[in-house]
Structure prediction request, 73 residues.
Amino acid sequence: MNLKDLKNLREDLIGELEAINQYQKHIEETQNQKIKELLTHILNEEKEHVAEIIKLLKDIDEVQKEKFEKEEA
Prediction:
């Protein structure tokens, strides 16, 4: 397990979560339907990125994998 890789992945995860919050805020603030539709599409892609990063973290970090499994039980 490369600690630098894990650190980078966690920083990437933070970035994706921040992006989700930003898009959600902008969706709530606009009245323009076209903007809402586009931002919702982007928001959903960001959520997919979060899932992909979490899956990868589970695959390469045994402790993290154990913690996820414990919480899912």
About this structure: Residues 33-60 form the longest helix (28 residues). The mean pLDDT is 95. Residues 18-72 form one domain.
